[in-house]
Amino acid sequence: MGSLHIDYRPRNFDELIGNKGTIASLKSILNREKEDVPHAFLLQGPSGCGKTTLGRIIADMLGCPETINEEVNGDFIEINAANNRGVDTARAIMETMHYHPSVAKCRIWLIDEIGATTKDFQQAILKALEDSPKYAYFILCTTDPEKLLKTVKNRCSVFEVESLQDNEVGELLNWVLSEEEFDISSDVKNEIAIAADGCPRQALVILDQIIDLPEEQMLGSVKSAQVNEKAVIDLCRAMLKNATWKSLSTILKNIKNKDPEKMRRAILGYMSAVLLNGGDAKAALIIDIFKEPVFHSGLPGIILYVYQTMD
Questions:
Q1: Sheet containing 107-112: which strands, arranged edge to edge?
Q2: Do strands 157-160 and 71-72 pair parallel, antiparallel, or not at all (unpaired)?
Q3: Which residue, among 50, 51, 111, 115, has the nearest Cα to 78 in the 3D structure?
Q4: Beta-strand (E) ranges in the chain?
């Protein structure tokens, strides 16, 4: 048995849980006549909600899956734009875009985290999005759509992808457990749903970690996955109280294995709630400091932002 989040990655629309409206819209569009299908899709939504998986399914529907006869499909090009964000990457796409597909029905570029690219990249790729050859398609994914040029967004069919609700995470867990011929208590499943925070991949990663444990140890193991969430809340409260750097740095040292960008968004969410429930000038200041993503700076970027919150 491999990792659950890989073994149970959805391969088609019917296996996807949640986002019913978005899936219905995509099915309708992809069932049109070929000439009426858009050549640029933009999937936007929070980290871990399944944008890249959905992009791969769209590629498959268009006739360009990741693999063909268990061999890598060279017509399917997936780019992590967080690591390939400059104009040279865009130029390479433009130079190869006019090559006809070699094994698939079309050629597809799936560009993950397009919001992390430079303005030069986005400007360079405009022509490709606007005037694609009939066999070329672009699927763009981003957690940060506000970083995209308006001209890029205007050339795409935009689809919102949302995190799963707790009951949808529960549905996913029940399906996987049934397939694995295994069962866990409702309390453990509820705790996994809370810890996963709407992310299907994270839910299955946690399930993978506990599935072989004795039942009496499962609940405690899942709850330990939530320690970081408490630490982020403690960090937010400390920033609002103008805590010393010694106190803030101690909390930061206790936050381990946390996605820095997800952490930044959690801080923004907490501070937004503070503003909406009575208001606090410090919360507004913290939102302003944390407004830029940390795809490139990672945890050091978070540490710098926290340092800048001190009076």
A1: 76-80, 107-112, 136-142, 40-44, 157-160
A2: unpaired
A3: 111
A4: 40-44, 67-68, 71-72, 76-80, 107-112, 136-142, 157-160
One DSSP character per residue, 248-285 reads HHHHHHT--S--HHHHHHHHHHHHHHHHHTT--HHHHH
The pTM of the full predicted model, rounded to 2 decimals, is 0.77
> Which tokens go with 290?
């944390």
DSSP secondary structure of 20-57: HHHHHHHHHHHTS-GGGS-SEEEEE-STTSSHHHHHHH
SS3 category, 207: helix
Please give the structure tokens belonging to residue 69: 């006869």
Structure-block tokens of residue 297 = 């700076």
Evaluate whether 199 touches 48 at the Cβ level (below 8 Å): yes
Q: How far apart are CA 42 and CA 46, in angstroms?
A: 13
Burial of residue 205, with CB atoms counted within 10 A of its CB: 0-12 exposed, 13-18 middle, 19 or more buried: middle
* Tens digits of residue pLDDT in 55-112: 999 999 999 999 998 899 999 999 988 777 788 999 999 989 989 999 999 999 999 9
Residue with tokens 């597809």: 108
